[in-house]
Amino acid sequence: MGRAPCCDKASVKKGPWSPEEDAKLKAYIEENGTGGNWIALPQKIGLKRCGKSCRLRWLNYLRPNIKHGDFTEEEEHIICSLYISIGSRWSIIAAQLPGRTDNDIKNYWNTKLKKKLLGKRAPSRRARANQDHCGLAGGRRRSHLHMRLQGLYNSAFGCTTTSSNGGGVGVAPPQWPKLEALLPSRPLPAVQPTDAVVATVQHPHHLVVGGHTLATAAAAAATTSEAFQAAEHLDPAAATGSNYMPGVAGVEMTSSSSMAGGGGFVAGYGLHDELYDFLFKCESIGGAQGGIIPSSLPELQCPDGSAIIGADEKFSTWTSSSCDYGSGGAGDYVLGYDQ
DNA sequence: AAATGCGACAACCGCATTATC
DNA sequence: CGATAATGCGGTTGTCGCATT
């Protein structure tokens, strides 16, 4: 017995939305709100659509103040730096970019930014079928790709230079972190306001990442790195054979399936040192170039929008007192941020 | 001009989490 | 407190249009 379908698939229309459907949905929600029940909404307004489809359409396209396309360089930097930090947590990343949706960012990453980082065209879906048979295997592939991405990220954003690529500005390259789990062994809090997209950046340098921050994430990684030594010996991409992220070392391990019980993967040994190196060298370098990494230690805000509390030392307070991560249980790992 | 390849993006699917009964 | 429903999220797929062969 599987899960009951959310709607009657047979009587539900699929595919692109027509202007009429858009108008109906938009008009109704603007007038009445969602009523707190997406499943019932399509029946109310006479749409032959699944409630989930309505929700997606509203959140991604019909909602006011949605921006599409034309990502700025600053937005790209934010996306990249957050991706480095937390992986493919698109909803969290979207929360840092007002007007952007997770779907939009995800698409933008997959079609543009990833390639920008990789510096070459990624194989198409059609070509992907062959990839598994030809690629480097396991750890060797990982380290190979890892090195490539480090260089490519650097060159793509001018984070650093090498004498050989001609794009140099004569600064030392930041360290691309080695492979390891960045975050604690459970996902970031999933708590996001419905309209998280418009909820966040109070200050461009105070990024709040689902309650974690770049700084706290780095600190977390530092203190949990030991617990993730095993991750260094795993290659979920190879193990699953399904993650497509050539060159994105830690990133290729961040699919939700491969992360079951594990945080976003980023870097390896002494995350503490390497991630800070990476983030803040980029920052100091980027300062002259428009910046890649947010330039100050971020503040910490609980996902529920309650107190904004400074720096790392309060993270454990929040996690232990007000944030239930669910099944993982607080005893599963040691935070250690403020130890 | 037709076929094919590819990029971009909208939408769907299924799982995890949360809320409610 | 368990079962069920609803919602949120991320991965994947489908489709369209443009570029290339």
From TrEMBL:
GO terms for molecular function: DNA binding. Residues 9-62, 63-113 form the Myb-like domain. Residues 9-62, 63-117 form the HTH myb-type domain. It is found in: Nucleus. GO terms for cellular component: nucleus. Keywords: DNA-binding, Nucleus, Repeat, Transcription, Transcription regulation. It comes from the Eukaryota. InterPro entries: Homeodomain-like_sf, Myb_dom, SANT/Myb. PANTHER family: OS09G0431300 PROTEIN (PTHR48000), TRANSCRIPTION FACTOR MYB36 (PTHR48000:SF46). This is Uncharacterized protein. It comes from Oryza sativa subsp. indica.
